[in-house]
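Recap quiz, item 2
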Amino acid sequence: MKTELRLGIVGLGTVGANVAQLIERKAELLAERVGRGIRVTAISARDRDRRRGFDTDGMAWFDDAVDLAQNGEIDAFVELIGGSDGIARDAVEAALDRGIPVVTANKALLAHHGVALAKRAAQNGTEILFEAAVAGGIPAIKTMREALSANEVNRVYGILNGTCNYILTRMEKEGIGFDACLKDAQALGYAEADPTFDIGGFDAAHKLAILTSLAFGSEISLESIFIEGISKITIDDIAAATELGYRIKLLAVALKTDSGIEQRVHPAMIPARSALAQVDGVTNAVAVDSDLLGSILLAGPGAGGAATASAVLSDIMDVAGGFVPPTLGLPPSRLQPYLRARMRAHEGGYYIRLAVYDRVGAFASIANRMAENGISLESIVQRKADHKGEGTAPVILVTHETTEAAIRLALEALSKDGHLSGDPQMIRIEDLD
Amino acid sequence: MKTELRLGIVGLGTVGANVAQLIERKAELLAERVGRGIRVTAISARDRDRRRGFDTDGMAWFDDAVDLAQNGEIDAFVELIGGSDGIARDAVEAALDRGIPVVTANKALLAHHGVALAKRAAQNGTEILFEAAVAGGIPAIKTMREALSANEVNRVYGILNGTCNYILTRMEKEGIGFDACLKDAQALGYAEADPTFDIGGFDAAHKLAILTSLAFGSEISLESIFIEGISKITIDDIAAATELGYRIKLLAVALKTDSGIEQRVHPAMIPARSALAQVDGVTNAVAVDSDLLGSILLAGPGAGGAATASAVLSDIMDVAGGFVPPTLGLPPSRLQPYLRARMRAHEGGYYIRLAVYDRVGAFASIANRMAENGISLESIVQRKADHKGEGTAPVILVTHETTEAAIRLALEALSKDGHLSGDPQMIRIEDLD
């Protein structure tokens, strides 16, 4: 048996404590699988005195994570502090500068600085592993980087935020409005007190930025992602989706188009019978379309201490086994510069819900604005007007494939025509064939 | 860049030719990813003169696969001949005896001789990789062996035979009978002229035997699998399943029970809303329940030249990158002896369809035989009798959880009572919660 792998862990919150506990509890299993012992020899966290459910005897304590990265007697460095900058980044850089492999669950760090860190790692003859950074326990990174390594990817997409999926699932299954579902998600610990990062689509965007790089061998470009959150989705939209044979999910999508890479995170209507549509609650899913494999789908827990710890441990065991593949699947010098496709060029079908004043000319305005912009309609449903005051009638349109630019122009013109009460609702349709 | 990896490929059918073509066509991509060139330096197949769509210049030809394994100038050996014994096995053993890593898509070889081969590999300081042997392009092996390496698995299950799933999907969607669907599957090349291996459940059993070993760290035991094929499934069963909120799939399941490991392949009713129920046509799926991750699901193409070649290439690239994990996820000496749970001890719900003569006492016989064996019923549906001659009425029962032993005794007694026309139909219900 080889000498044991000595780990330094910084950040001992839920995931970090879980990882340390599991290394203690499953020592025998882990050693059998990788042919060597794995031991935590150095730790650092905010509060030294907190009890964390594992035996800290024999572990060196460091008040400072960077100090541990620089001076700990370790063979691999595990960063579970989080955040794109500050101490997490400093500590990771310090470990890489020593040539020590880094395991991290930090999506923000990778999404913002992944390429620079991959270069820094390569310069020092080491790499970063980050299975836990995307889709929790689902082996999305390993699959993209290794199982698909001979494939050229056309599209990667998925449900990457459990909070949003929990809210949308409850809205659909129980007919409860967005605000009430969000409150429940907060009470259950699925959503933060400030839920913007999740429900605004930013969390999913961070994960997508990383997947996109692995999918297309391109540099990471978080700032190129078109992001729209779920807070504008109403029960009316959910009911309309059901009627039309769709379900609404916060989808993260990256695909290759003629003009570059299109990256977007937004609520989407997907066919109710698709496998992705069955992904409910806090479950995440990642799907990949590629030249050799066609379509594959991975689904599983997207968060949670044990699932995330499982992903961290899988990376640690790869390191212990001597398997440290290139951070982003390619040597960083071979990553393509990111070429951005404009969102206005996006092509697809659209669902549009309008509240139309019940008056002469209103319907002609809709028909004309669509026609002017070359948009053909697959279906139109007008419901009975609500006749309190000047009544409005809900009108639901589903378009054939068109462009984002055309839809935006049409909706802008429609709004100016003055027949609408409130802003038009628009949800993109993703045909998952 | 390291020296190139020299490959010997034996068997140049659809998959073998695909692999060689892709290594030629994607040479640059593959080299970038693994940091070294990959080149086929030796080949062997039945017919030397056949054109195969890749340039054989510079490749040494061997009439005999074993000769290639023993004498080829190669760093890794790729076996794509197939078959559990004979030349495939001899050649793999010869390569292992030289200490050369083996990549294979041969499920029969692994299912029958996996443990012996793993031992032989370990004795010679090398390993066998076999991603393509189970569920085609889905990274089931990599996920079980690496992503789940810190997990203890409770259950692994899936849809592992594309032919069966294609037939069952068409029966359901188009209301066409089993025989007609099988004929179409044969015409489309999804089923062999002798379809027994697929529709009898044996192909799925081979794949399950391998997954079970990886899941539980146990020795492989193909002969312990309870196997039942799909040929007895009728349109009536499909219609009843739909009505009851289920879909019928050929399911392969391995789980840990108090008395050992239960392995079974049989048609099962699974909840229509489950993700697995959406896996249609020739698509395969593998699901795993484990202590840390909970449930994860992988779905994708289970067969086809390109998808299988993709899996073979993923293994080849692991070898090129120097990553050759233990064949069965553990050193072979650490594999547990297989402890078999008897199928009679299986617990679950059952669907039973009877054709009952429309006469006094028939229903009492059903009720009594169930009660005698401690079986409680969740639902009973009796349809109107068919009144030609001595009419029979279809009766459909759904039981609460009971044992296989109880169901078998009850159905045997019922048959002896003489109120049934024909044999009872019985389909196990798998609650996937």
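The two ends of chain A are 50 Å apart (CA to CA).
The longest helix of chain A spans residues 107-123.
End of item.
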